[in-house]
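pasting for the record
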Amino acid sequence: REEAAVNSPVQVHAFNVLQPNGEGEGYGVRIGESPTVNALGMREVRPAKGTAFGGVEYEVIGSDMQVLSLQVPPGTLVTNEPGAMMMMDPSLKGGVNCNNCFGRCCVGQCCIMGTYTNEGEEPAMLGLTPNFPAKVIPLHMHETGAATYRIKNRSFFASLGEAKLGFSFDCNPLTCCFSGQGCVHSKVDGSGTAFLAAMGTVMTRQLKENETIIVDTTSLVAWEDTAKLSVRRAGGCLTCCCGGEGLFNTTLTGPGTVYFQSMSYEKFKAALTVHAAAAGAAGGALAGAAATLAANEGLATMRPRPWYAAGMGGACLAVGTRRRSHMAVAAGAGSRP
């Protein structure tokens, strides 16, 4: 089975219980995890097929921006974040779940969750996708014995069975301010299967007793409640100001399973903002230059197209493209023939 998993990007198991890895470390390979440990001492979470809580067959499809396909038995309820449905069979009926609205709002999740129930007599197909470019992480809490997983805010995607999304307060001033998880943590507990959404390369590591790992504050996705969350200073004064990691790094001390992502949503959004700003400034400058050329053409051909009207039109277009594009405004309104 391990040899087949290495040769194929999709691992297919008939069951989800932990499999011995034959390395003598006492750590089992969960469904969807690579059977080999990489150079970082972690296992990559890969697309997989399996059986979730209640005998629900599922498959994670795609190498990135993945789709979660569920074969929902009759009478089974699936809970998911709003807007996650991509396709479904006619026998599935949509609904909403308003339980624990206050707790979900505190952790940044949607106050009201969507639900789908199979009202037919045969299993129905349901395709779900996260609301941002992400991969899917299955958490089989009913099989691994984990009572509670603490998860990154807004990473909850869907659940089956009694896996419920909740919250807990962090009363430690250091971790609530500098761990990157806020003063209110999201958590998933109960017996069932939960599905999380994470970006980039998703990896997991089983921390041993008193084993500590230092991670970036935005790279942490989920960790078992048995692992202790803390912080450590990133370095000296110059490192904290210019190192790009902030004042503190997040630390986790075992025992417990931890999940990581290589590209967080915060980093992805920041990168898009930088590129959008550069593109907006360039577009505004081009618009101003085009307006100036049009004004010159109007004067050369004796058409009633005064330079100030065309120039200010270019300035307005530049400002509309990027409000803070001062160079574009100058190019559009400050040039005269």
